[in-house]
Amino acid sequence: MTDRRELVLSITQLNNFLEIQNTFGAAFGMRVLAQVIDRAQRLMPSGSLLALVQPDRLVSVIPGEEASQTMRERMETAVKESYLVDGVPIHVAAGIGVAHFPAHAATAEELLQKASIAMHWANSSKSAISLYDTANDRTSRENLILLGGLSDAIVRGELQVWHQAKIALATGEVTGTEALLRWKHPQRGIVPPGNFLPQVEETTLINSVTQVMIAAAFADAGSWRAAGYQLRVSINLSVRNLLDHMLLDVLEQYARRNQLEPADIELEITESAVMIDPEHCIRLISLLRDRGYGVSIDDFGTGHSSLAYLQKLRVSSLKIDQAFVKTLASDSNNQKIVRAILHLAKSLGLETIAEGVDDERAVTLLREWGCDYGQGYGLHRPAPSQDFLRFVDERKRAQR
Fold first, then answer.
1. Which residue among 146, 362, 366, 370 is least packed, with the fewest CB closer than 10 Å?
2. Do 358 and 213 reside in the same domain of the chain?
3. Residue 174 to residues 135, 161, 223, 297, 392: CA-CA distances in angstroms?
4. How many Cβ atoms sit within 10 Å of the Cβ of residue 293?
5. Does residue 2 sit within a domain?
6. Residue where a domain stops, chosen among 91, 113, 136
7. pLDDT tens track for 153-189
8. Is 223 part of a structural domain of the chain?
9. Same domain membership, residue 214 and residue 191
10. Which of 159, 120, 146, 86 has the alpha carbon at shortest distance from 12?
11. Can you tell me the distance from the alpha carbon of 258 to that of 38, in angstroms, rounded to the nearest whole number?
12. Whole-model pTM?
C-alpha cells in the first residue's frame, strides 16, 4: 500500500515557451500550453495534483515515491515527444526538478525550494530531469554567508579583475583580453567566479558587481593604451545587465574616464540571455553597435537561438562554446559542429573566437579552418593586469 506521508514534488520549466510565443504568436503559444497541460494531466497517477504557477512553469505533487518512479519514466519519455499544433510540429524543451518529502524537506515551502533548485540544475546541466542533490544546492549555509558578504566586499575593494588573453590564430599576436572577476576574500583567499556569480546573477546586486568589473577592466585597458599597447578588453553581461537602463551610461562614463573609444571594448552576451527577450536584445545590441562597441554572442552553439534571430542581431562576432573546443582534437562530431559554426559566421561576415583552447592540436585545426581568435588555458591562464602584460611582452619577444 502507498505511504501517503511520502510526497514527490516536481517543477517543470518550459524553456523555449517564450521563443515559441515570439515566433508564432501568443494565441499559438496558448494552444501549445494547453496541449502540454493535457499531456501532463494524462500522465498523472490517481490522487496527484497539477498546477500552472507561471505561464511557462508547471508544478505537480505525487503521493508516494513508488508512484513517482513510474511517473519519472513517463515524464522522460513525454518531454522527448513533439506536439502537433495547427499542423505544425513543435518541440517544447523542458527542464524538470524533483524533490521528495520528507527526505529533502520538512515543510511545503522548503520542498518547493528544493525542487526549484533541482530544476535550475537540470537546465544548467542540460538534463531533462534532475533529482535534488545537496551538492548542487547554491542556497547552502556557506554559500548564503558568502553572498551576504558581497556588498561589503565591493566597498572594501575585494573584487578584482584578471585577464585572459585572446590570440589571433593566424599570427599568434595577443589582440585583447576577456576580463574575469575574482574575489580576494580575507579568509578564503581567491574565490573563483563560479562560486558566487551564478547566485549573484539572480539578484539586482549583479548590476553593482558588473559596474565594479567595468570600472576595473576599463582602467586596466586605459593604462595599457597609455603605455603603448593596442589591446581590446571584453566584458561579460548578464541577463539583468541587459535590462539595466543605466548600462549605456555606465559604459560611456568609464570609457571617457579612461580615454577609451567604444571600438576598444567588446561586450559578451550569452545566447541564452538573448533568447529571454530577443526583441529587446535586438534593439540594445543595435544601440551598442551604433555607438561603436563590439558585441559577441558568447557560448554559441549551446543555447536556443534561431537563425532568424541571429540574422537580426547586429553582433560583430561569435564565440564558440568550450564544450565543442576542449575535445576538438579527438571528437569528430565536435569537429563537424565547429566547422559548421565557422562556416555560418563567415557567411554572415562575423569574426569567430574559440574558447577552451587547451592543446596545440586544437590551435592547428582552428587555424586551418579559419577561426580568427583563440582563448583558453593552452594559450594563457587568467592573470592580474601586470602579469598579463608580462605575458604579452614575452610573446612579442618570442615572435621576433
1. 370
2. yes
3. 38, 18, 17, 21, 6
4. 21
5. no
6. 136
7. 999 999 999 999 999 999 999 999 999 999 999 988 9
8. yes
9. yes
10. 120
11. 58
12. 0.68
